[in-house]
Amino acid sequence: MSALIAVTDLHFGYPHRPPVLKGASFTLHPGERLAITGPNGAGKSTLLQALVGLNRPSSGQIIAFGQVRQQEKDFHEVRRRAGYVFQDPDDQLFCPTVAEDVAFGPLNLGKSPAESMIIVERVLADLRLSAFRDRITYKLSGGEKRLVSLATVLAMDPDVLLLDEPTNALDEPTTERLVDILLGLPQAMIVISHDPHFRRKIATRTLRLEDGCLITPAPACRNAAVPAV
């Protein structure tokens, strides 16, 4: 089965700072839910942004949907097919109402207003957010904004989801609701998360970004020896 995304030996550093990515490599296959963890500042968000062309690596290769992606024009298709849900929903929501925010993507893909509203109704119903349709976006709670941010991405019918810390500041019921939603979606996904309980519930595979590289984390020891008294 061919990979949806294949990253090989990716290197990236911000100006006047030490390198962040120092040979990161991984693949994402259809149906996978890949979780990426690692310490703060390890470069997890930097890596996601490189996948959609927001950061340009100094070396290495990104193959997305069967094509090598290097130049700005190469990433136009990637941004359409890989839905990026930002860590801060206020970076994603900017229209007055929820319906307008969810319709924004389909309209920009060339759908008519009538077609876009059909998509809005379907996506909101699928996420059990129909009651939010006419809500004022900036008056939503943090958890509500996160769910609406996901709806805006799903309205574009992406092949892959890129989720950056989706459970930040969520209470337990909203986190469980998000888990149910993600488990019911057909898309492959890459999920950055510090939450081990969330990762265990949704991930089919986990990698840890450490010292600029992606590694398979060691399994937790369940039978640690009890120190002698």
UniProtKB/TrEMBL annotation:
**Pfam family for this entry, one:** ABC_tran
Q: Which PROSITE patterns match?
A: ABC_TRANSPORTER_1 (PS00211), ABC_TRANSPORTER_2 (PS50893)
- What InterPro entries does UniProt report for this protein, alphabetically? AAA+_ATPase, ABC_transporter-like_ATP-bd, ABC_transporter-like_CS, ABC_transpr_CbiO/EcfA_su, ECF_ABC_transporter_ATP-bd, P-loop_NTPase
Domain ABC transporter per the UniProt entry, residue ranges: 5-228
UniProt cross-references to CDD domains, sorted A to Z: ABC_cobalt_CbiO_domain1
Q: Which superkingdom, per the lineage?
A: Bacteria
Gene Ontology cellular component annotations, sorted alphabetically: ATP-binding cassette (ABC) transporter complex
Q: Which GO terms describe its molecular function?
A: ATP binding; ATP hydrolysis activity; ATPase-coupled transmembrane transporter activity
Residues annotated as coiled-coil are none
Annotated keywords: ATP-binding, Nucleotide-binding, Transport
Q: Which family does it belong to?
A: Belongs to the ABC transporter superfamily.
Q: What is this protein called?
A: Cobalt/nickel transport system ATP-binding protein
Q: What is the lineage of its organism?
A: Bacteria, Pseudomonadati, Pseudomonadota, Alphaproteobacteria, Rhodospirillales
